[in-house]
């Protein structure tokens, strides 16, 4: 099956994957552009660090696929949304690009990514997302494309500002399960407040590999420690964006995280790589 061939390009033989997300410009939010103002340079920097995948929008995927030689797999972001600012607009949307899977096949993508958003008191937005996933699933089956669904539970904007993860595991688990029920081949899920409980999220995904989102910028120590714990809980890998591209050393950060995901490195070993003192440099 074509979907298995693409899954094999995404994941190592041990079933692990690190996807670097550089699709933030798709969402019309100024703060998301830090570190990716020059997309050619940002993509080349990450490619040189050799993650498994790079997540890009349709308009920027050409920069990756134009590079010669072996390169990370393309994960194509399929939906644009307007829910990431500090203030929510009167009308919320999450809209998929036209003929998304045909574009993905043409661009030699290994997977497509789509949101499954759950915002407080916004059932219409959730409804849009469910329809998006259903539509993409049919096309993915037709073309053998991997469907990555991103169940994203957000806090009310008045709580902590815009685009803040709600780490309540009782909200994350049913949304992750819904993603699996809708036919996700891969799930890109939020971390929960208590990382030691994350095995419950892995279990509820019913065998679908779970890649954990990175979210907003955090300290190096927090990122490494949390990533190690998530992998120990059974995650198949990670999808980090701003904690890579907004880091002063994005290539070293990628190498450090790859060591955790694929080699079982400890947080201290990963921090040594990040500082330039460990293996991988």
TrEMBL record:
Domain of life (superkingdom): Bacteria
InterPro entries according to UniProt: Aldolase_TIM (IPR013785), DeoC/FbaB/LacD_aldolase (IPR002915), DeoC/FbaB_aldolase (IPR050456), FbaB-like (IPR041720)
Protein name: Class I fructose-bisphosphate aldolase
Originating species: Paenibacillus mendelii
